[in-house]
Amino acid sequence: MSDLRRALLPSLVLLACGSPNPGDTDSDSEAPGTSAGSSSAATEVTPTTSGDTGEPALRPNWHEDIAPLAAANCQSCHVAGGIGPFAMTSYDETKPWATVMAAAVMDATMPPWHAVETDECEPPFPFKHDARLSDADKALFQDWAAAGAPEGDPKLAAPLPEPPSLDLAGATRTVLVDTEIDIPAAGLVRDHFHCLSIDPGNAESVYLDGMQVIAGNRGIVHHVLIYVDAAGASASWPGGVKKNCGGGAGIAGAVQLIGGWVPGGLPIEPPADVGSEVPPGTRLIMNVHYHAAATPQTDQGTGLALRWKTTPPGWASQFTLIGDPGMGSSLHGPLMVPAGEKDHVEEYVWTVSANGQDIPDIVDIRLWAALNHMHKVGVDMRVSVEDRDTGVETCLLQTPRWDYNWQRSYAYDTPITSAKRIRGGDKIHVRCTYDNTLANPGVQEMLSEVGLDAPVDVHMGEGTLDEMCLTGLGYAVKGL
User: Fold this and answer.
1) Is 132 strand, coil or helix?
2) CA 25 to CA 193: how far, in whole Å?
3) What number is the average pLDDT over the span 66-95?
4) Which residue range forms the structural domain that includes residue 100?
5) Is residue 51 situated within a structural domain?
6) Measured distance CA(238)–CA(180) in Å, rounded
7) Torsion angle of the four alpha carbons 107, 130, 404, 325, in this order, in degrees rounded to the nearest 10
């Protein structure tokens, strides 16, 4: 492997921190099309006849109109035991929430989706799994609530689409850690970082093209980072666990960060013909960030579902982090958000290179995913790439109504060969905006955790009550 490829490989990850409680926000922008399972004629439904009375059934109703929408757009989270606060799989479960649901979809806070088009950001491609509802679907929820949430006739029920799955399709192997990990009740220490060692069990080199984190106790698993331990050094950890390992991999020497997870996040799946190499004898290390609850908790059964191929792909999948704590230079000095400041901005610029080495143009680098990450004081974040020759700036992702409780990576819906290309010398710009006043619900939530009633200065740090300004970029490399 060349020195240049080694320099590119220390990839940082789709870092994100989130809570299992719904609450994602969006702008007022509408989806470009109709979402899966939606009804394009939502506001012009035709009255149907009740099978028992012969009277026209009131529309829209649950069985004919709302149930298909709920299955297609809500039931990946809103099911018994899911990460949603209530289930939406039956009429009796859903009716009490009709007014709340109507308000949430009209305000675009549900379904969760942060990446939107704005006056200063038009991403180069649409995103996969765009969860935004069409205007017609939003009107259906509004009209249903306004009509008193009628059930309709079960005999006239529309076919239900299969709910979107959060599980990795076609997993080759699933490995869980059985060791019990005790997390004390929240006190002076609220954030705990423990590392788990996973043996993929591959006897030959394999190439990951799918990866999913399985959280044993979703109430306290805050986020997970996934590293490649090529030397297998973590195999010596008792029970496969190294406690209090900090924010890294917990071992000395070079490691490669290849993935990450937050509650509600979809599996990591790069485009076709893109993958991450895992040689035999390699261990995968999960750095698990636990956020303490009000009572003592135990985590067990956290692990990974992996999907791989044995044939090398044409492109090597990698990640990098830009901002703080990541690569690039700050335009304003150390990150600090003063108490009481409403529109505080932090900016970072990174010139694309391989650890300071120039990247020849023969190396083809294509962006396939982007992720923004802040904590609870953040309100808006934008990342863009500036062409080294023309100075033209292309916005890659903006999340203008930031909600800490829902974070995810956004993959571009385009083949890797047509994805946005970056070259050595291009500049990546990251901008974070914060509101450290009581007008920000995130600040109110943060202060309540520590028993304060007024904002305080917030600095960069790993903990939930600290701040970050960090963009993760997933990219594929060919030509090294």
Assistant:
1) coil
2) 28
3) 89
4) 56-156
5) no
6) 12
7) -150
